[in-house]
Write a structure and sequence with these properties.
homodimer, mainly alpha, Tetracycline Repressor, domain 2, about 200 residues, about 80% helix, globular, DNA-binding
DNA sequence: GTCTATATTGTGATAGAC
DNA sequence: GTCTATCACAATATAGAC
């Protein structure tokens, strides 16, 4: 990764903020320039096109949590042993940037055809992961439940409360953001306990 | 709800399909007209503006699953008794239209400020729901865990696997949609069992 | 109700002065 | 590297003929 000028960093910061919030189509180059306090045409100078600026932001976002997932899916260690550390880092990432999950999910949903290529680039090997899951199921680490369902449960419990933050905040925490954050931090303990219970 | 002409129905159907897929900003009136096989300007004739057409689609989407949630949050019956039926209907709704969850979450995330008003319109009363949760916690239905965390777990397990369908399909089910659907149907049994285990 | 024509504005992108 | 001016095009929306 090359060194970035200050201007370039400002652009990326604003682009991240706005793309996360409004998505690719919902954000104009003008919006980003204004937010960064930088002339619109400089965005083209640095990133050539909106597409390429977006790609930079998207890849950075994916890079924030895909490696955690990949490590779990590919390592020699069992899923179970990975859970506490994974939950901790994922939740911390989400607390820092609650909109990242919905951003990534939305863009992946709009471009389903690109999924296999993206996974490859991110270093995830589905075939290998499936084999690992199959082996773990055989040695009954998962208490008889399909390993894929176990993984799905784990990830769902970690990420959904952030993807649905606006609703959760309003209905369950009455708009109190502090209370919401406290609850999310509590989940770092709750989720591993819960998974342990399921796997026994 | 007034009677709709055939043309109006076609427009709504195409608008739903495209808004779900590409979001509000990512879909043009032209796209919708083309998909419906209808002249672009007729969309304005029937719905006046893109904003109003979008509102119609959004409200219809919310109406598909908010009532289920509202019923659980407001009824006299305990959450626990509601679980199997809720899981069944939510999962069925999601299977029929996998992109609805990400669509709703994305739009709510883009317009967080509108949340309280939307909840009101949808007939959800956060204060009432919270009171009910507090009572249930007191009578220890939730095995000591905060009721809000229980609700959060339940909803996460139901919805996330659909919001993340592209990733889940690719990594866990190797692109096999049939296998994915079968797994989602299995969750109708898995989730209630799991919740029961948690609440005991 | 449905079409064509048109007004108006917004957007991505580049050329060229400094 | 940064700005102004400009281009080509796409978007929403409306007026008005039929």
């Amino acid at each position: 990764m090359a060194l970035q000028t200050e201007t370039e960093e400002k652009i990326i910061a604003s682009a991240e903020k706005l793309f996360y919030q409004k998505g690719k189509a919902g954000t104009s180059m003008q919006d980003i320039g204004d937010d960064a306090g930088i002339n619109r045409t400089l965005l083209n100078y640095y990133f050539r096109s909106k597409d390429q600026l977006f790609e930079a932001v998207f890849r950075k976002a994916m890079g924030r949590f895909v490696p955690n997932l990949a490590a779990m899916l590919h390592s020699d260690i069992s899923f179970e042993e990975y859970i506490p550390a994974l939950v901790e880092t994922v939740i911390d990432t989400m607390i820092e940037n609650p909109q990242i999950s919905i951003f990534v999910l939305q863009e992946l949903s709009s471009n389903q055809d690109r999924m296999p290529q993206i996974m490859k680039e991110m270093g995830i090997n589905p075939a290998f992961a499936l084999k690992k899951m199959e082996e773990e199921r055989v040695i009954k680490v998962t208490g008889g439940m399909d390993s894929r369902q176990v993984i799905l449960n784990l990830i769902s419990l970690c990420i959904f409360p952030f993807a649905a933050k606006p609703v959760v905040l309003d209905i369950l925490y009455n708009g109190d953001n502090e209370a919401y954050i406290v609850a999310m931090k509590e989940r770092k303990k709750i989720i591993p306990q819960l998974m342990k219970q399921l796997l026994s």
